[in-house]
Amino acid sequence: MSAATLAPAGAERTKTRLLELVKRHGPQTAQDLAQRLDVSVPAARRHLSDLQEQGLLESRTERPGGRGRPQHVFALTDRGEAAFPKTYSSLCVDVLRHIEGLFGGDALLKVLDARNAEIAERLRGDLPAELPLGERVQALVGRLNEYGFDATAEQDAEGGWVFTQRNCPNLTVARQYAQLCSAEITLYTDLLGVPVARDTRIACGQACCRYRVG
């Protein structure tokens, strides 16, 4: 097997190690990461650039310890954080199970409705009613991607809008509580101001969640 054949796998291992270093030590400069990995700074920068394009890292300027000269550092994005194992989903399932057991299904729906209202309040400014529907859909997809949904939008043959989520960050919860998916439909309908219907659902074993708008 040639070195060229091994290179991609080696590059992916290096990227994984870069993410692990940033997770363990916090925001790092390219020079610090190159030193920790024992690679050249240009090589580290190439990997960092790839990770930025994948939405796993972001670059920003910080003063070490709040003092000294500003430095260009790389930090995990929300999507990068999500790449590491979490127990949040199992905790969420436990909490919802206890709410339903103690107070009934209506209480569970009230909790999800309150969550919807909070999310809608955060996103509504990005989707003003005066924008054309297509722009509102695109804006919603952009925000969904910030939350790790790997979403895309397109127009169908009739000129209507369709958007797709190829990842479900809440899959563990959604598989046990279909109410979460129902609440999601309500949220999208509220934000876009038109009916939204789901054609496919990841939680049911399909490849993506696909939504028809209007």
TrEMBL record:
Pfam families in UniProt: MarR_2
Domain HTH arsR-type as annotated: residue spans: 5-89
Lineage: Bacteria, Thermotogati, Deinococcota, Deinococci, Deinococcales
UniProt domain HTH marR-type: residue ranges: 4-111
One example GO MF annotation: DNA-binding transcription factor activity
Region annotation (Disordered) ranges: 50-70
Name by which UniProt lists this protein: Transcriptional regulator
Endpoints of the signal sequence: none
PANTHER family per UniProt: HTH-TYPE TRANSCRIPTIONAL REGULATOR SRLR-RELATED (PTHR30363), TRANSCRIPTIONAL REGULATORY PROTEIN-RELATED (PTHR30363:SF28)
